[in-house]
What does this fold into?
Amino acid sequence: MQYNLLNKNQLNDLISFLAREQKVVAPVAQGLNNYAFTEIKNGIQATLNYIPTTLPPKKYFMPQRETLATYDTTQGQNMDPVVEHEKVALFGVHTCDLAGIQCLNMVFSEKPKDQNYLARKNAITIIGYECNAYCDRFASCRLVHNHTPNGGYDLFMTNLGDKFILHVNTPAGEKIIERSHLFSLAAKADLAALERLRQKKREIFEKNEIPIEHEKIPELFDKSYQSKVWADLDKRCVACGNCTNVCPSCYCFDVIDEPNLDLTTGRRYRQWDSCQNETFAKVAGGENFRKERGARQRHRYYRKFRFPIEKFSRFFCTGCGRCSRACMAKIDLKETLVSLIKEQGMENPNAGRQSTIAEKPATF
Amino acid sequence: MNMNTKSPYQIKIGKILSVKQMTSMEKMFEIALPGEDLSHAPGQFVEVSLLGIGEAPLSVSSSPTKQGSFELVVRKVGKLTGALHKLKAGDEVGIRGPFGQGFPVRILEGNDLLFVAGGLGIVPLRSLINFVIGNRKNFGKVDILLGCRNPKEMLFHEELAGWKERLDVNFNCTVDKADPDWKGNVGLITSLIPGVTLDSERTFAVVVGPPIMYKFVIMKLLDKNIPERQILISLERHMKCGLGKCGHCQIGNTYCCQDGPVFTYEKVKAIGGAI
It folds into this structure.
């Protein structure tokens, strides 16, 4: 049996159980419409009905700053590579963010493998949590098929009203079920309740948020490289890099040396970088290959909707809507896509309707 | 928790055997990895590291036929290259690599070669040229065209003179702007291409130069009917990590550091922003 039940009043016990062996992080309310993945000690601190957190859980897989090596120049140019990791349980991860983690896993597992990332990943347990309805108007999870779970978790919780039903996906998840003694097996009626909930979700997420079929998006981008939409973004973007920092699948980084005050010891670390920064694609000779903000925004969109199709057979946009929420210039991903679609005359107001995508993953 | 595992950021220690001032801007560093060869292919690059300063990608300029050490030619333009220029024989640097796809030597064998180098493009191209000269019988006709801004910026004077003297290599060079002592061609590198006699079916053109150069040189090569898949170029980007991850060197869907820096024109012509 892959499904188990947890009484709502035992959520706290589950958190306590997890906290005995590792740091537990969960979405915690920080103010109005503002949530952050934060360490919790008690289930009551977590908020399960949240709009996407300001930063996605990628910060546990790839922290903003991460030491790669330490050095002591009195010992010559040698350095000691450092791989940092800690045991973490990520609690209450929505399906959009599970997809973001899956994207990062693919990138960093590709050869040459990134040991720093993989060491962290291997120490993280993921407990997902299903959204039964839209979080807000910025989300476009239906478009990229992330409104329902597609794996990427150890356990996945769905709120059935009076209890949680949990899907067990990995041996690590199974261990939690077995060792915590908090769960009971789901009965047929519970599975029927889950199916009713999913059916209701099919009505809520009845069609794509943006009037285009999922499968047509690569074609849209093939046609849109010279689009006027990029010229419009060029005028509006302020190149702050918010969109990439908050993106669950953005992983670009810079590598920087930081000497200590003794000027002999220090560390080499990597730090989140952004393709929206002016100097990102600049070379030593002075040439800047993406000098205009429009070209940099275009690059960002292609890295979500076109380039990863060939390399990883999936979109790297998770539909979470964070880039639109965080944009100081109010550049909205959904609006940008609609503009591109209109420009190419590819509008399909019923796109996604009656599709069987929830059961069958798309192929390209 | 810290844990030492095999990190792709680990460096090897390189010992500087000699430093040679090439022009007012460039120095050549001969570097040895104690106990091993770099084992690079022509066209590959290394990440050179100085702790406390950082890393920079630099093309290997020597041919793999040269054993025991390798050469880097470094223009002083930034923080890392500025610090490198202060080093002398006996000093250490950190080396990661070699990285990237070099020139497809096995495919080039048996064919005629037309080398087109602009400015610092001669630095990586020299690796392949010397490899070809070192294995001369494996290759057909060889033409080398070299262009730079002015005679003072010309690198590898003695080697160029050697290439010029060889009967099995056609060498020609030009400068954008002459000085009073210059007796050779004056004009852009593109002006040398029409004068080359070649059999387009069996010629591979290998082009390395500043970004602005490619479009114009490739037009002239296509005029000569060289097939697009036989035009090889090496693209300059900021290969920050060398591991296909950090994003700085990305061109369209390709990571220049892993998928390149050597590409065929056929492959990159459709990628927006490549050339």
